[in-house]
Write a structure and sequence with these properties.
mainly alpha, 516 residues, 23 helices
Length: 516
């Protein structure tokens, strides 16, 4: 449905309630994901399981998240409202933690916290980004920024709450209480009023309103010839056909107001999933080409995907480089277990988790502001942090006290989130807005495959060597590889430009031949 024909409030009224609901969901959901490492270390002791097997919980969870999130964003949002999809996700996530209370082994946790919870995450989080795009236009950047900022606050609050629950009620009691916390999401979901529930203003209603305001206006639905014969002295005005307007992403990225531009650029770097500065609704409207997408079958949406992005050398290089640069993010999962192995107390581990969460938020904001500087190449903003991550990871074996751990997680947390903060903006710059949905899908698939591989592999290295030193060296090596790939970006751009020039030359040559 065209954005103009929907009667829902935009940037005012109930829009702020939608923002509050979306921010609440981000706070409750993303915060639990950030603090999962605290449960990870307890599961190792409860079930006497290996790190490689226990790490499958996180890796399989990412796989099922991607398997659900992609069809939800591309197809499911066409047939069900955001509120309905979020209800499904909230039910699955709540059930996952509730069922985990009865777990007797890691295999059961893989079913509940990986499969069930992963599917629930795919239904729960992406639709909140979509509905924000429907209720906000001028302030969309601010709305998305506030929503993702609440996720960062959740990453600070959840560790404190989980540690308290574990100390008072044990691990199973903490799992049950987290399930109860997730039930609060139902309240927020109830506030996500679908825009379709607002009665759209039809052409007949608009015409009736116009007639009431100006009764002397002649009804243009009457036949011109009969009207001209009965009223020869009245000239019937012909209203020009009103072109349906769809809001494009370029309007959002380059707003006329400089303050809006700063707000948007600040907010679009705060999320891991980072659909911040764009809206699925905008993309679908921009590519509609006068076709009602709600009348299309699900397989027709799949056929419409543009796979030409795989022909761009720069995008392929960025895709592989992003996979390597995403590996350092898995350190959050192993941090509590790593610190406890080195003799750090539970209260100190809690502080370390809060530090790395806060520094992650701060690093995203700083990288966002730096990327607004046209003198700085965006890929270089990733190169510097990844080089720093690769370097300090090689010194992980010397972490033996709380002070050294604090310094390590401060630097690590500040730099590790940079690729996630910038990949949305870099992707749209490389492939363009029209091809962004397909490119984004490939990025999610690549990231999922990366996490599904490196998390168990890092756990396997811990089991084989008996410590996390080899895993830290492995993470640092991946960071160094990403540095090398991103430094080759200018060469990839030249290859694409040369290929594009050759294609244009061939087209011109064929055109000249046809004329002759």
């Amino acid at each position: 449905m065209d954005e103009e024909n929907i009667g829902n409030p935009v940037d005012t009224g109930w829009s702020w309630v939608i923002l509050f609901a979306s921010a609440s969901i981000s706070f409750l959901h993303i915060g639990s994901l950030k603090a999962f490492g605290l449960f990870f270390v307890e599961f190792l002791e409860m079930f006497d399981a290996s790190v490689s097997v226990t790490s499958l919980i996180v890796s399989i969870q990412n796989v099922f998240y991607a398997l659900i999130a992609l069809p939800v964003l591309s197809i499911g949002i066409r047939f069900l409202s955001s509120r309905s999809l979020c209800f499904i996700g909230a039910i699955l996530c709540t059930s996952a933690y509730a069922m985990s209370v009865f777990a007797m082994n890691v295999e059961f946790l893989i079913f509940t916290l990986s499969i069930v919870f992963g599917c629930g995450s795919g239904f729960l989080f992406p639709p909140t980004l979509v509905i924000l795009g429907r209720y906000f236009r001028k302030r969309r950047g601010l709305a998305n920024g506030l929503s993702m900022a609440s996720a960062c606050l959740g990453s600070l609050a959840y560790p404190l709450f989980i540690r308290f629950c574990m100390d008072e009620y044990g691990v199973r009691g903490a799992l049950l209480l987290i399930s109860g916390i997730y039930m609060h999401i139902f309240i927020a979901v109830c506030l996500l009023t679908p825009p379709e529930q607002y009665r759209p203003k039809t052409k007949s209603e608009l015409q009736e309103k116009e007639n009431l305001l100006n009764p002397l206006v002649v009804d243009t639905s009457v036949n011109d010839s009969s009207l001209s014969s009965s009223l020869p002295n009245i000239r019937v005005p012909r209203e020009p056909v009103r072109k349906r307007r769809t809001m494009t992403i370029s309007e959002d990225i380059n707003p006329s107001n400089s303050n809006d531009r700063r707000t948007l650029n600040f907010s679009k770097y705060l999320s891991n999933i980072s659909l911040m500065s764009i809206s699925t609704v905008d993309i679908s409207l921009q590519k509609s080409n006068n076709v009602k997408k709600k009348d299309m079958k699900w397989y027709e949406h799949v056929k419409n995907m543009d796979f030409s992005v795989l022909k761009q050398t720069e995008f392929i290089l960025f895709l592989v480089g992003f996979c390597f640069s995403a590996v350092p993010a898995i350190f959050n999962v192993f941090l509590p277990a790593f610190a406890r192995e080195r003799g750090i107390t539970d209260n100190q581990i809690l502080i370390l988790v809060c530090i790395i969460g806060f520094m992650d938020f701060l690093g995203r904001v700083v990288s966002g502001f730096l990327s607004d500087n046209p003198r700085i190449r965006t890929s270089h903003i990733i190169v510097v942090p990844m080089f720093a991550i690769g370097t300090i990871s090689q010194f992980a074996r010397f972490l033996n006290s709380f002070s050294t751990f604090s310094a390590f997680v401060t630097i690590y947390g500040f730099f590790a989130g940079t690729p996630f903060a910038l990949f949305s903006a870099m992707t749209s710059k490389i492939v363009g807005i029209e091809k962004f949905p397909t490119a984004y899908a490939f990025l999610i698939l690549a990231q999922t495959c990366t996490f599904a591989t490196v998390i168990p592999l890092s756990g396997y290295l811990r089991d084989v060597t008996g410590n996390y030193n080899a895993a830290c060296h492995f993470i640092g090596t991946n960071a160094f590889l990403s540095v090398i790939l991103f430094l080759f970006e200018p060469f990839a751009q030249r290859i694409d430009q040369k290929r594009k020039l050759n294609v244009q030359t061939i087209i011109v040559h064929n055109g000249d031949s046809a004329k002759h």
